[in-house]
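Example 9 (inverse folding). The structure is encoded as follows.
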């Protein structure tokens, strides 16, 4: 995976996790949604890395 793409996944995951942490005090459902989006974003990064390694 290129450095730019890995940086994108790292920064976007940090932003999503920060938003989830902040939203805990406002809405539990929003925090859960953002948590799932964060895990999905991290997982998608691993999927892309594995696909590029295979090729």
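The amino acid assigned to each position is listed next.
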């Amino acid at each position: 995976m290129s450095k730019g793409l890995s940086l994108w996944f790292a920064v976007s995951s940090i932003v999503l996790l920060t938003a989830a942490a902040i939203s805990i005090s406002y809405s539990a459902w929003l925090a859960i949604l953002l948590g799932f989006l964060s895990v999905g974003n991290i997982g998608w990064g691993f999927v892309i890395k594995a696909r590029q390694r295979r090729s």
